[in-house]
TrEMBL record, chain A:
E.C. no: 4.1.1.111
Family affiliation: Belongs to the Ahb/Nir family.
Organism: Marinobacter segnicrescens
Function: Involved in heme d1 biosynthesis. Catalyzes the decarboxylation of siroheme into didecarboxysiroheme.
Keyword Mitochondrion attached: no
Domain Siroheme decarboxylase AsnC-like ligand binding: 84-170
Keywords from the UniProt entry: Lyase
Protein's UniProt name: Siroheme decarboxylase NirL subunit
Domain Siroheme decarboxylase NirL-like HTH: 32-72
From TrEMBL, chain B:
Pathway where this protein functions: Porphyrin-containing compound metabolism
InterPro entries: AsnC_trans_reg2 (IPR040523), HTH-Siroheme_Decarb (IPR050684), NirdL-like_HTH (IPR053953), WH-like_DNA-bd_sf (IPR036388)
Name by which UniProt lists this protein: siroheme decarboxylase
Ranges where the Siroheme decarboxylase NirL-like HTH domain occurs: 7-51
Family: Belongs to the Ahb/Nir family.
Protein task: Involved in heme d1 biosynthesis. Catalyzes the decarboxylation of siroheme into didecarboxysiroheme.
Subunit structure: Probably forms a complex composed of NirD, NirL, NirG and NirH. All proteins are required for the total conversion of siroheme to didecarboxysiroheme.
Catalysis performed (reactions): siroheme + 2 H(+) = 12,18-didecarboxysiroheme + 2 CO2
PANTHER family, A to Z: SIROHEME DECARBOXYLASE NIRL SUBUNIT (PTHR43413:SF1), TRANSCRIPTIONAL REGULATOR, ASNC FAMILY (PTHR43413)
Keyword Membrane: no
Length: 181, 154
């Protein structure tokens, strides 16, 4: 399967030290390699360069640029919470009035135990909820206590919501946007 | 796997801001007072034991391609079967059973919206189950990694 590089890539093609534009195909290969994580070698960016047909400088420049642009949110260890013992994972969904969802979403996201917070569309009549947040914890009582804390803090006592604990992870892995999966 | 103080330090300090330079693990080793070789060995071991899924970048979903959270309501006794079918579809990177009528929740990714829509349509036809499509409208959380509360762990 041949995938054409998205405009996002071409926009970020960095200039090499010599000033010539970096191969878009090389950057696409780099993205595909990066989604698997850094190779654990003493010179990981050199290894990535070898695998994607770029130079080490081009690889580091591209990564830095993608970071600066916010295409890469963070770079480091991606922890599997479940293995560590964070087995209670609740997706809490809320039906918030449209004119308040932005402010409440931002406030929820600042709570230290909230690990994700998104606004999503309602799908009536089945699905009335427009705000999603995730709470990761070591056990259910602790997660429910944190939820109570959140409800009190944000004054959400009368806001319709549902708590969806996860019971099984069938898959949990990094995103593969340009890979062949 | 038993994590010692150095493993914990690696996790606490390097979920973000791993340096981008020719020898990043040498930088890390200086910070932790161990050798570069040991840093690489520890990271490999954390990866092998599934404590860490990878060391590397986390891409911003909304900008790194198309992705969508979807949910289906599967009959309880067919949960494993339906989950396996979902996992066989291309681009599925998260798939969880949750306590709700909509009991399977998965994230599908694709290079662009058109491909994503095709894949979801195909899967929906295959499963013949009600499916919720819940694209992100706005994200409020800035991903800084996750502060581990070591004391609370079992």
């Amino acid at each position: 399967m041949i995938l054409s590089p998205s405009p996002e890539y071409l926009a970020v093609a960095p200039e090499a030290a010599g000033g010539s534009p970096v191969s878009a195909w090389g950057l696409l290969r780099l993205r595909r390699e990066l989604e698997k994580g850094l190779p654990l070698t003493p010179k990981p960016y050199q290894t990535l360069a070898d695998r994607s047909g770029l130079t080490e400088d081009e690889v580091m420049a591209a990564v830095r640029q993608w970071q600066a642009q916010g295409l890469i949110k963070r770079l480091g260890l991606v922890v599997k919470h479940r293995t560590l013992g964070y087995t209670a994972n609740a997706m809490v969904v809320w039906d918030i009035p449209d004119d308040q969802v932005h402010a409440i979403g931002q406030a929820m996201a600042r709570m230290p135990f909230v690990t994700l917070c998104y606004q999503r569309p309602r799908r009536l009549p089945d699905w009335p909820y427009n705000l999603f947040c995730m709470i990761h914890g070591t056990d259910r009582p602790r997660v429910l206590a944190q939820l109570d804390n959140l409800i009190g803090d944000q004054g959400l006592q009368h806001t319709p919501h549902a708590v969806l604990f996860s019971t099984k992870a069938y898959r949990q892995r990094g995103a593969c946007y340009v890979g062949r999966h | 796997m038993q994590l010692d103080a150095t493993d914990r330090q690696l996790i606490d300090l390097y979920q973000r801001d791993l340096p981008v330079c020719d020898r990043p693990f040498l930088d890390v080793s200086r910070q932790l007072g161990i050798t570069e070789e040991e840093v690489i060995g520890r990271l490999q071991s954390l990866q092998d034991h599934q404590v860490v899924s990878r060391v590397g970048p986390v891409f911003e979903h909304s900008r790194a391609g198309a992705s969508l959270l979807a949910a289906v309501a599967a009959p309880e006794q067919q949960l494993d079967l339906v989950a396996a079918r979902i996992n066989r579809a291309p681009g599925v990177n998260h798939n969880y059973a949750r306590e709700h009528t909509y009991n399977l929740w998965f994230v599908m990714t694709a290079p662009d919206e058109t491909v994503l829509e095709e894949r979801l349509g195909e899967l929906e036809q295959q499963l013949r189950l009600p499916m919720l499509r819940l694209p992100m409208v706005e994200g409020y959380h800035i991903d800084l990694g996750f502060e581990i509360d070591w004391e609370a762990l079992p």
